[in-house]
Amino acid sequence: MNLSDLLALLDTWYPPAWAEDWDRVGLVVGDPEYFVHRVHLTVDCVPETIAEAIDAGAQLIVAHHPLLLRGVSSVAATTFKGRIVRDLIRAGVALHVVHTNGDVANPGVSDSLADRLGLTNLRPLVPATGAAAGGGRGIGRIGELAEDMTLAEFAEHANSVLPTTSWGVRAGGDPDRIVRTVAVSGGAGDSYLMAATTAGVDAFLTSDLRHHPASEHLAAGGPALLDAAHWATERPWLDDLARRMRDEAGVDTVVSDAVTDPWNV
């Protein structure tokens, strides 16, 4: 399949108009006339995952996190991102980013996270507005566990089903608190603490929770909190996207298992 045709299909699943205004999604490196038969999927486009893509014989990397989120004045090989651009061009590998347009999609990043945890009857934590409104789209998901768990049990469960990282899953709240209704949001989620409280869930699992917002949230009687590695909450989506690309686009897919979470000790 020509890259241009494959990207047109991806844009029907995850329209760029659904991305946040500050986001940078779409084709970053590559010629639309490239021929693609194998796609490498990763959360982060870094030297390790580029090497994986080249070794796998991929012509396209689909990454969740943008390589060039903020403006740059140079992509010289003397810079980290410049070397990445150089290596991609040298290898003839294109790079395409699906970020917040994948977060709000239905199914999207948080659906995959919720599925890993065994949640059902999903609905958005923060329903989408604007171009993405409707269709069950939005940031995060709220769902139900099949049976009650204590917070301590649910933290153990989350740690067992999410991709393994050095720091696993940590939780805040009464260890004996009963958890049945859960909100999740892949990636950084402390801006959705109030949404989780308003929704009346028992627990909220996300990433990158900061000290003061988390402690104030718990002190105010909000839902229990579970904080997992950012990478681990977004990695499950790659499996679902890979399966969809194989089934609907007919391309071969390879999913990276390189742990790109920066906290490794």
Task: Give your account of this protein's structure.
With 265 residues, this protein is an alpha/beta fold. It has 2 domains: 3-101, NIF3 (NGG1p interacting factor 3)-like (Udp-n-acetylmuramoylalanyl-d-glutamate--2,6- Diaminopimelate Ligase, Chain: A, domain 1, 3-Layer(aba) Sandwich); 104-230, 3-Layer(aba) Sandwich (Udp-n-acetylmuramoylalanyl-d-glutamate--2,6- Diaminopimelate Ligase, Chain: A, domain 1), CATH 3.40.1390.30. 35% of the residues lie in helices and 25% in strands. It is built from 9 helices and 11 strands. The protein has helices at residues 3-13, 47-55, 80-91, 100-103, 109-117, 151-161, 193-199, 211-219, 230-249, and strands at 26-29, 38-42, 60-63, 94-97, 120-127, 138-150, 169-172, 178-188, 203-207, 224-228, 252-255. Strands 5-6-8-9-10-7 form a 6-stranded mixed beta sheet. A 5-stranded mixed beta sheet has the order 1-4-3-2-11, sandwiched between helices. Helix 2 (47-55) links the parallel strand 2 (38-42) and strand 3 (60-63). Helix 5 packs across helix 9 (230-249). It is globular, with a radius of gyration of 19 Å. The model has no long low-confidence stretch (mean pLDDT 97).
